[in-house]
Design a protein that fits this description.
The structure holds two protein chains of two kinds.
Chain A: H1 4-30, H2 33-54, H3 60-78, H4 80-85, H5 96-101, H6 118-126, H7 133-144, H8 149-155, H9 160-176, H10 189-208, H11 219-235, H12 240-254, H13 279-295, H14 300-313, H15 322-335, H16 339-353, H17 355-368, H18 375-387, H19 391-404, H20 408-417
Chain B: E1 2-10, H1 25-36, E2 40-45, E3 53-56, E4 59-62, E5 71-80, H2 83-90, E6 101-106
Antiparallel strand pairs in B: 1-5, 1-6, 2-5, 3-4
The chains are: A mainly alpha, B alpha+beta.
């Protein structure tokens, strides 16, 4: 007999760490995402009883996988109609025979695969470009991280039925349009990986700066994004962009404790208490970034991580290596010519070339029009104007930023910048 | 194998009633390639937007149903094992690099009257 609390802890732990592995392996037997999900859920539920009775298995993931697969096989045998009705994710010959009889043969049918891990198939299927990004995000949280639909709905501030419908629609498209359950071929990998990295980055950003609502941090989403980035890093260790994204998240998250004060108010980078930053995380990120920069021409995430790391490395805000940051932004603009990047470059540019030069750049972007609805354009413009002593114009720009901001902490910060703001 | 319909969207169809073989060369050549490789099940080139007539409710109007920069200039059906394979075939359509694009839709079911058959 194992005590109930120990079994509960083991199950929670296996849920957090092993859900993706268990589900990915079960999909190959069930050949259907819904059935696989159901069987995995049942396996976790039955673990409670069995583990209390017979002890926690040495390899909980293997126990859960075997249990879930058996349930899938039973379900298919019981319902042969289901079997012939559904478009199958996995061809019959590579499913039951390949996985149950011979685990090692499971990958043999796919010589194009780069890394033979079932979890990669799951991740690439959830982040297929034929699915809308909001569906990719929801599916990844549900299927790769095992987050309950109600929690996903809450994180994105929509109702549970709406989120459930979004996930159901995405699954239906996967089966009807036959989005394949496989790892992209080497030729398609960079493009497909971009979508995966974008989903992880979006999850992190959504958690880090909640797009709306009262809390600046939604820690759970940040943790999920970190978990996914770490998982992907383990699965595709040779990819520098995967490393770069992980490093970027590490650096950004290292400042988690200081981004808001005790009252939840936003604290600007220059006023954050650097002694409270997670130095271990920053050092780990720095090692990764240095290795990636040596490996060849850096991509978007490696450069973003390098910029974030330079900001974090300075002993004080005033001692930041501004010229180096501008140089990195120039390289970032080459690989990722986005107006948002050009806007962010204006911040270090103001320190190197003065607020006037930076303001000229921001005004050029403002005229371009693509960022007119972007609150940070107006916030940065306001800051530059106030540094130039043009307080009236600065207040106008802060008002525009305030009108566009939805996050409560950011709104409170902006409101303080506007004189006589009610 | 599954069937996918590929809808060609472009400014207008190249297949005008008086089009010369040169006008339609790139479309026809692509279609021939798909036939040769065995993936094409059916293909229809449509006449230009000026030939279109639309009906909504009781109203009949001249022109395409949706007034937009692009019209459906033609469509074809291919066979492919999965969506990735279908997309790989679809993106080889010359229209994709010519300012237009394609839409890929899984086929649910189809009917084509057998050769020589008539409806009575």
């Amino acid at each position: 007999m194992t005590d109930v609390a120990a079994a509960q802890t083991a199950i929670a732990d296996a849920h957090r760490r092993e859900w993706a592995r268990v589900l990915a392996a079960t999909v190959r037997v069930a050949r259907d995402l819904d059935l696989a999900e159901e069987c995995v859920q049942e396996a976790y539920a039955s673990a409670m009883q069995t583990w209390v009775r017979s002890g926690i298995p040495d390899n909980p993931a293997a126990w859960l996988t075997t249990t879930a697969k058996r349930r899938a096989i039973d379900a298919i045998r019981k319902d042969t109609a289901l079997r012939s009705r559904l478009p199958l994710l996995v061809e019959p010959e590579e499913a039951i025979d390949g996985v149950i009889m011979n685990e090692s043969a499971a990958h043999a049918e796919d010589p194009g695969s780069v890394i033979p891990d079932e979890r990669l198939r799951l991740i690439f299927t959830c982040c297929h470009p034929a699915l809308a990004q909001e569906a990719q995000v929801a599916l990844t949280l549900r299927l790769v991280c095992g987050v309950p639909v109600a929690d996903i709905a809450r994180a994105f501030l929509i109702s549970e039925p709406t989120m459930a419908a979004r996930i159901t629609r995405a699954k239906k498209k996967i089966s009807t349009a036959r989005i394949p359950y496989r790892i992209p071929r080497p030729g398609e990998l960079p493009e497909r990986l971009r979508a995966v990295l974008a989903v992880i980055h979006l999850l992190f950003t959504a958690g880090h700066t909640a797009p709306s609502g009262a809390s600046l941090l939604r820690g759970d989403l940040v943790d999920r994004a970190m978990h996914l980035a770490r998982m992907l890093r383990g699965l595709l260790p040779g990819d520098t962009e995967v490393q770069g994204l992980y490093a970027l998240l590490l650096v950004t998250d290292a400042r988690r404790a200081t981004r808001a004060d005790a009252d939840g108010r936003l604290v600007r980078l220059q006023h954050q208490d650097r002694s409270r930053w997670d130095r271990d995380a920053l050092a780990e990120a720095d090692d990764i970034i240095v290795t990636c920069l040596r490996a060849g021409p850096p991509g978007r995430y490696v450069l973003q991580a390098a910029i974030a790391s330079l900001y974090a490395e300075a002993p004080a805000y005033e001692q930041t290596d501004w010229p180096q940051i501008v140089t990195l932004y120039d390289r970032l603009l080459e690989v990722w010519p986005s107006p948002v990047v050009a806007l962010n470059r204006a911040v270090p540019l103001a320190m190197v070339a003065g607020p006037e030069a930076a303001l000229a750049e921001v005004e050029r972007l403002d005229r371009d029009g693509r960022l007119s609805g972007y609150q940070y354009l107006h916030a940065i413009k306001a800051d530059l104007l106030s540094r130039l002593g043009r307080t009236g114009e600065a207040a106008d720009a802060y008002r525009q930023a305030f009108a566009l901001a939805v996050n409560e902490a950011e709104r409170a910060f902006l409101a303080e910048q506007i004189p006589d703001h009610a | 194998m599954a069937q996918y319909a590929i809808l060609i969207y472009t400014h207008d169809s190249a297949h005008a009633p008086d089009a010369t073989p040169e006008d339609t060369e790139s479309c026809d050549q692509h279609s021939d390639e798909l036939v040769d490789s065995g993936v094409q099940v059916a293909a229809y080139a449509l006449t230009p937007r000026d030939m279109a007539t639309s009906i909504r409710g009781d109203i009949i109007t001249d022109g395409p149903f949706i007034d937009s920069k692009e019209v459906v200039a033609g469509f074809y059906v291919i066979e492919a094992p999965d969506l990735d394979a279908a997309l790989a075939i679809a993106r080889t359509n010359p229209v994709v690099r010519d300012g237009g694009g394609v839409e890929v839709r899984p086929v649910h079911s189809s009917y084509v009257r057998p050769e020589g058959g008539t409806a009575g």
